[in-house]
Predict the 3D structure of the following.
Amino acid sequence: MRTALNSCLGIAACAGVAVLLSKFLGDNADARLAAPAICLQVVIAATLYWGRMAGLIGAVAATVIFELLLFPPLGRFAVSDPTERTVLIFFQLAAIGVVLMSPRSSGAGSLLRTRSRHKPLGASIRQLTRQRDLR
């Protein structure tokens, strides 16, 4: 249950940033081309912190949001400008590359596993002194 919630947070982060970028950068034609590159940074962070699946689904959601809200014609899945289509394709390919190159475990999950694996310092010292006394 906790893993599913973490994945949903990562997907929501990617989609939320895509909506904000679409809203604020939609008026300027040059800034529209930079929006997927900015969103790729969020996809990288989501992948590293919340896991591979959250990053991948978040990148797909961001691509759909950019198609619908950022690139004309608005509200349709068709993108009329070939440059904008190329930017979306490169964004999706880069996101897939990030997901494939990222570690299998997320940052939040690996931190919890690392803490539970190590013994407290006091227990380690007591074990060492017992071993020395037995010799």
